[in-house]
Amino acid sequence: MTEHEHYEAVVVGAGPGGAAAAATLARYGIETLVLERGVEAGSKNVSGGLIYAEQSAPVTVDDLFPDFREEAAERPVTRYYLHNVAGDRVETFDLGRLHDHDTEWADAVLRRKMDSWLESQVHEMTSETGGGLLTGIRANGLLRGDDGEIRGVTTDELDPIEADVVIAADGVASELARDAGLMDWEDPGQWFQGVKAVVDMPAETINDRFALSEDEGAAHLFSGDLFSDVRGGGFLYTNRDSLSVGTVFHLDSLVAEEAEPHQLLDALLTHPLLAQWIGEDYREREYAAKLVPDSKKVALREPHAGRLLVVGDAAGQMQAQGPIIKGMNHAVTAGALAAEAYAQAKGRGKPDRAGRLYAKKLREEGVMDKLRPRGYDLVRTVGERDDVTEVVDSLLTSRLGRLGVRALGGNLERLYGSPRLAAIVPDTRTPYVTLPTVIAEELGTRVTETSRVEPPSLEERIGELTYDTDVGNPHIVLVDDSYEASGAAITACPVSAKGFGGGCYREELVRTNGHEERLVSLDTQPCVECGTCAVVADTEWHHPSGGKGVVFDEG
């Protein structure tokens, strides 16, 4: 094998998982090179987003970066609510009990600010061990020896790099995890899609409208009929001087209902419930989207292959605990444990056992029990059958079911606040749509406010984003342009829509010699790199080269 530049450790991705891995490696004195494909860490990343520090976690982000909360976070989340919605009727539950369970603290974050701060810390730490951090570098695959074993990484911009260990923290669309055969994109039912608007709002206005002090923050969740029958819900988090407002839905449900993500977001933004917080002074700073793994189905039980260890979204480590979403904290824990596993395996003279030791640590520290709860596997075998869902929904919407909801009354809030129940909720229409709708209809109060929000059009949202297009090198290739193979992307893609000619995917009616055919065309220019189309359309998908493509200012 040809000799290449060598580092003891290469970390791909400078998000929270990669930063935690690099910081831990540096603490062990291990020479570490970090590769980040964005122009700056965070410029490619999107999150809702809340980052948690769990009391049971062996490592939290502030353990590794003591100034994190002061320098990189927005507001601490001190209040947590779920709004059950049916038309203009709403029943609100205080889910503080569920939010506080196993929680040391939880902060709202914006990824560009957070990740760029982490980048500066990591670059300093890794430079002291003979490594460093490079931005604008896309790791496009694994470097293998003549024997087929993993030896390092290949990139678009640099010669291949050898390493004794590679830690892949390159996100949900991880090309390294796919190259190793650890992850695929075959089943839309294994993924969520999140769409978000960052809404400009002065700090004093946030404090006034949400009844908060400067050191307080609120999280509001939304479920029910405002999203029709799409399985998922909405969120609103208070930042220092902005709001993060978005929706998260099961990707298979988006496809089945032919729902358009930007319209679902607008349904939330314009609901009269939000009029108490968002007025006619509405202004979006940024529109963004992200594919999210459902850890209950895809979290890798053995997230390693040879010298490759996989952490965070790349390993499917995103926990949907009912209305509580936890991903970044698990990425931090996994990154630190992966680095620790390598350092300890190396110290024992058996570095090739780092992957198995990493998987063992995830199990012994209880991380895998959170990501893939055993109770959910038992419930889903029965609870996620279509015939069972139909029976349960019919019962809930019947006179008897409605009487039961009224009889339970305030006890429903307590049930929703149960961590044990939240961990085993089946992924069906019942908990996302049917039950919250019935709760709102039977127990809710009518909202009398009128929304004056006028969201930007999809064209305006796309036009406000920043792109550096890699001209002549499209990162998506449409393999089959038939509507049957790729038509789902027209509605599921967050920058495409039926009848909209400015997005990535468009429908065309082609007539040839009296024959009529529905075809799909593709333009990668407005792509927000969420990866949705890689799952729902017949495409070949990879990330743009380093520094190219969309550049998020907020994330």
TrEMBL record:
Pfam families: FAD_oxidored. It comes from Halogeometricum limi. Gene3D superfamilies: FAD/NAD(P)-binding domain. Signal peptide: none annotated. PANTHER family: ELECTRON TRANSFER FLAVOPROTEIN-QUINONE OXIDOREDUCTASE YDIS-RELATED. This is Electron transfer flavoprotein-quinone oxidoreductase. Keywords: FAD, Flavoprotein, Oxidoreductase. InterPro entries: FAD/NAD-bd_sf, FixC-like. Its cofactor is FAD. GO terms for molecular function: oxidoreductase activity. The keyword Oxidoreductase applies.
